[in-house]
Amino acid sequence: MRFDGKVAIITGGTSGIGLATAELLLAEGARVILMARNPIRGKEAVKRITSAGGQGIFIQGDVSVAADCQQCVMTAVETYGRLDILFNNAGIIHVNRNLVETTEEEWDATLNSNLKGIFWMSKYAIPHIAKNGGAIVNNASIFGLVGGSGVAAYCAAKGGVINLTKAMAIDHAGQNIRVNCICPGSVDTPLLENEMNDLGGVEVQLPKFASRHPMNRIASPKEIARAVVYLVSDDASFVTGAALPVDGGRAAW
To answer: Domain 7-185+221-252: what homologous superfamily?
Structure first.
């Protein structure tokens, strides 16, 4: 049980990569706090992850709101007495928007959710993680490493996530906190389904999304979750400041 007694916060934790990561951590002994905006989905997620006897709770909150992030961390520590792991996973995307077409509201919402949310959550979590040491993983994207068409704000946010990760790794290495990020390609999540629907429908878009990866498919959430679990485990004890592509080879093109 690699995470026996450890406590993890996962933002955007009620579906997709976040929920898959929660299930893997719980299976190895962690106690998990899921933070997201939708309370109905939150209750369903907690019921799912605790059905096998694991310990987990849901906290409703928006990562772009400082008070929500602070309350999430406080509740986690008050409930379980410590904090060891933070997975900054929450994010949004607007598609079919080049820079000129992107509205200020879309730009702000994208940066606030994908980048500023990491700032707020980490700001409040790090003092608690530092008490025992631990790990933070930020969810970046292949679009943090390469450009993409029609997602200008998302590319800006995810590029920021990668360099923020490196700065955090340097600043907090002396506190025995490792900070890394993952850069997934296309993943079978509700976020991607919404994106494909916005572009004309899943049936039409799925083969196109798959063909952008040398492995000619998209990932399952669990495949990405395994990378997150590796990075927060002692197996990655000398890994910090890394941006790990988990993209079926897409960044190699």
So the answer is: NAD(P)-binding Rossmann-like Domain (3.40.50.720)
